[in-house]
Amino acid sequence: MTSTFQNKIVLITGSGGGLGRETALRFASKGAIVFGADIDTDTNSHTANLTKSVGTQMVPSPVDLGDPVQVADWVETIIAKTGRIDVLVNNASAAKFNLMDDLTIDEWHFTIRNELDSLFYTTKFSWPHLKRSKTAPNGGVIVNIASIAGHHASRAAGIAAHAASKGAIVALTRQLALEGAAYGIRAVSISPGFVLTPGTKAALADPAVRNALEQAIPIGRAGVPKDIAEMILFAASDAASYWNGSDIVVDGGMTAG
Ligand SMILES: NC(=O)c1ccc[n+]([C@@H]2O[C@H](COP(=O)([O-])OP(=O)(O)OC[C@H]3O[C@@H](n4cnc5c(N)ncnc54)[C@H](O)[C@@H]3O)[C@@H](O)[C@H]2O)c1
C-alpha cells in the first residue's frame, strides 16, 4: 500500500510494545531511519534487534516520556544526528482503570502523565523540527494514537482517566493541525478498538471474556497490531496528504452500532 519512507526520520514512542514494535518494523522495512523511545529497555532492545532483519536497525532509547527533561534530551540527541524529523508517532501509553468509586488521585495522575503529558512533551520538543515552509512537499507529520475510549464510555470497565486522556488527544490533534498548517505540519489521530498486544494480554487471559468481546466486533475477531500499524504508515505517507486534523476509528466495526 505505502510506497517508501526511504531515509525519512521517524520517531516512535512505546516502540517496545505491541503496536509500537509492529509500526517500527514496518517503517524500517520501508527504508525509514527509526528512533524508538520506551521506558522498558528490554522490550525496546528486542524491537531494535528485530528491525535489523527487515531494514535499518531502529535506534532504541530508554526514555521516561512522562519526564519533559528526558524527552527534550531524546529529541535533541536525534536532531544532533539528523537535523530534522519527518514523522512523529505518539503511541506510548500506560493507564490505570478503576470505577469512579475507587479511582484514586494517584491513578488519575498516572494515566494523564503516561498517556497525555507524554504526548504533549514529544510534540512540543519535536514541533520546531517538523516545521517546513508551507509550500514544501513532505512536511512533518504527527500521528497520535488515541482510542475508541476517547469517543465512547464503557459499561464494562472503569475507563474515566483513560477516556479523558484519549478524548484530549483527539481534541489536541485538531488544534495541532490548525496551528501546524502555517508550517506544513499535518496532524492526525487514529483510534483503535480492541487489539491483541502485551498491553491487553491480561484483560484477555479469560477465554470467556475474549469470546464475549470478539462477539461484539462485527468483523468477528480482535485486532492485531498489523491492523493498526498499516493505518499508521498510511497516515504518515504522502498518500494521506489531504487527511488532516481528524480521527479515524479502526475497530472492526465495534462501535458502529
Ligand atoms: N491494544 C489495544 O487494544 C488498544 C486499543 C486502543 C488504543 N490503544 C493505544 O495504542 C497504543 C499502543 O498500545 P499497545 O496495546 O501496543 O500497548 P503496549 O502496552 O503493548 O505498549 C505500550 C508501550 O508504551 C510504553 N510506555 C508506557 N509509558 C511510558 C513512558 N512513560 N515512557 C516510555 N514508554 C512508556 C510501555 O513500556 C510499552 O512498551 C496506546 O496509545 C494505547 O492506548 C491500544
Your description of this structure?
The protein has a seven-stranded parallel beta sheet with strand order 3-2-1-4-5-6-7, sandwiched between helices. Helix 4 links the parallel strand 4 and strand 5. It has helices at 18-29, 41-52, 68-82, 105-130, 160-180, 207-215, 225-236; strands spanning 9-13, 33-38, 59-62, 87-90, 141-145, 186-192, 247-250. It has a single domain (9-197, 225-250), classed as Rossmann fold. The mean pLDDT is 95. It has 257 residues and is an alpha/beta fold. Helix content is 42%, strand content 14%. The structure holds nicotinamide-adenine-dinucleotide. Nicotinamide-adenine-dinucleotide (NAD) binds next to helix 1, strand 2 and helix 4.
List unreliable stretches of 5+ residues. none
Output the structural class: alpha/beta
Q: Count of DSSP E strands?
A: 7
Structural domain count:
1
Q: What is the CATH third-level topology name?
A: Rossmann fold
Report strand order across the widest sheet. Answer: 3-2-1-4-5-6-7
> Average pLDDT across residues?
95
Distance between the termini: 29 Å
Helix tally equals 7
Shape: globular
* CATH homologous superfamily caption: NAD(P)-binding Rossmann-like Domain
Strand content: 5-15%
Q: Describe the largest sheet.
A: 7 strands, parallel
- What's the alpha carbon Rg, rounded to whole Å? 17 Å
Helix content: 40-55%
Bound molecules: nicotinamide-adenine-dinucleotide
